[in-house]
Amino acid sequence: MVWTDSSVTDSQRLAILCGGGPAPGINSVIGAATIRARVSGVPVIGIRDGFKWLMQGDTSHTVSLSIEDVSRIHFTGGSYLGISRANPTRDPRHLEAVVTALAALGVDKLITIGGDDTAYSAMRVAAHARRRLQVVHVPKTIDNDLDLPHGIPTFGFQTAPQLGT
Fold it and tell me: Which positions are catalytic?
C-alpha cells in the first residue's frame, strides 16, 4: 500500500495483526509498516493476538502504534503484538465478527503477517468486507508452505534451517 499525505482522510486507519507460529522478522514488518504509514499521516493500531479477540467481537485488545513505539522493536524476538492460530474462516459468525470489529475500530486497511492459514483468513476477511477493507498479507512461515514464486522463500523459513543446522 502506498499513501500520500494528500490522500489521507480522518476516517482512514491501518491495523496490523500476526497469525500462526513465531518466526524471525515479525517485528521488523510491524515496525516498517507502522513507520511508513505514520510518516504518511495514517494512524496505526496493532491487534493483539491475531484474529483471536476480533473473532469474539472484542475490540479492546488493541494498541495505538507510533514511530517511537516501533522504532527499535526489530532488536527484540517474538512478536510485539503477540500471535495466535485463531482462524475466523471456520465459522461464518467469526468471520462476520472480525469484519464488524474492524469497522468499529475505524479500520479500512489491514496488514496480516503469517503463514498459509493467516493468508487464507486475510483473503476471506477481505472478500467478506466487500471492498470496505483493503487487505495486504505478508508471508511469514518457517514451513515454507506458501505458494510463492520458485526460489523465493518466506523470511521465517530462511532462518529456521540455518539455526537448525
Answer: 143
Supply the CATH number for residue 134's domain.
3.40.50.450
In a domain, 124, yes or no: yes
Burial of 31 (0-12, 13-18, 19+ CB in 10 A): buried
Domain residues for 89? 11-164
Among positive and negative, which fits the CA dihedral 135, 75, 62, 6? negative
Global pTM? 0.84
Distance CA(69)–CA(35), nearest Å, equals: 10
- Indicate whether 2 belongs to any domain: no
Q: What's the rounded Cα separation, in Å, for the pair 126 and 110?
A: 9
Per-residue pLDDT tens over the stretch 103-161: 999 999 999 999 889 999 999 999 999 999 999 999 887 666 666 667 666 665 666 55
Is there a domain that residue 106 lies in?
Answer: yes
